[in-house]
Amino acid sequence: MSGANYVPESEPVGATNLVTVDLSPSLNGAWGDCARSFVVENGRHTDMPTLPEFKRVWTQSDNYIGE
Prior knowledge:
Number of domains: 1
Distance between the termini: 36 Å
Strand content: 25-35%
Structural class: mainly beta
Largest sheet: 3 strands, antiparallel
Shape: elongated
Order of helices and strands: EEEEEH
């Protein structure tokens, strides 16, 4: 979907969520792309997820920094 047509969600971040931020800035005809995902457990961001549904995927991702 083009950024010009993007409509953000109105759903608030819950106590347990995977939040993805995807940016596509442009300047003078050049485009960039940056996407990052953040795990929220118990209402707080965590670098080391403990819930099995996050941990299984997170340890296989580029965001994983080891235990």
